[in-house]
Amino acid sequence: MITLTGLTKRYGRTTAVDELTVSVRPGVVTGFLGPNGAGKSTTMRMIVGLDRPTAGTALIDGRPYPALRDPLREVGALLDTTVAHPGRTATAHLAAIAAAGRIPRRRVAEVLELVGLTAVAGRRTRDFSLGMTQRLGIAAALLGDPPVLLFDEPVNGLDPDGVRWIRGLIRSLAAEGRTVLVSSHLMSEMEDTADQLIVLGRGRLIADAPLPAVIAAASRNAIRVRTPEPGRFAAALRDTGWAVEIRSDHELLISGATLVELGDLAFRHQVRLHELATRSASLEEAYLELTGDSVDYRAEPVPSSEQEPRR
Fold it and tell me: Which secondary structure element, helix H or strand E, spans residue 6, and what is its range?
């Protein structure tokens, strides 16, 4: 279990992490989300002792990382995939880590097999693709078979098959009772992987809740109605005070009402309905709503209308 209490990191006048208090529980995949500069990577670095907190504590099973007797056997971390010496083979790289952590040499072959790198184990890492380098970093995190794992953007550089593989791996590690913290900017992937979400914005905690609860709280949750009489039904809806958005000639999106209430309203006004269904927000929509005030760099929106193709 990872326990952060009042965790704070300042660089001069800049506060990267601001009094963060959360717990990352074993047995679930905890997604760690936030815009660029939100403090996610800094938080992970403080957890594994690479950065010293300005204030507060980061504990792993009740102890700070420097106090762990066998840190590689207790915590595995993928924070930077470029640490392998380019002149070393994958096997030599992992063997050096194993020797430093008093991990049996046989474990090197086991993790290479686990991440799918056995066939290139003797190749120098300078010749590795980005995806292969990412797999090697994951192998290093798993080398000590630790109960606590941190993955910072683990799908970077992976092809679709690799993305599906890491998703299954992460979920299986949590199912074994391990503590798994995963940061990512890919909301669709987090929606398929995470059970719990921690969301940061400008170094501060915005949300700490199960994934379904974060999505359910989004204002984009609504009910979709298809009817050949959208104007008449929209007028009746507005009289009730419910928010109505006309999406097309036959489709409405209504917020603040239930399926039963809308069905009864249509019956009272004798409006024909072709569809009445709940429309749930995606994690991406919920995330953008949560972090809208915490984005430091925002480009101008791209026009939604199609533009003339270049000639």
Answer: strand 2-11
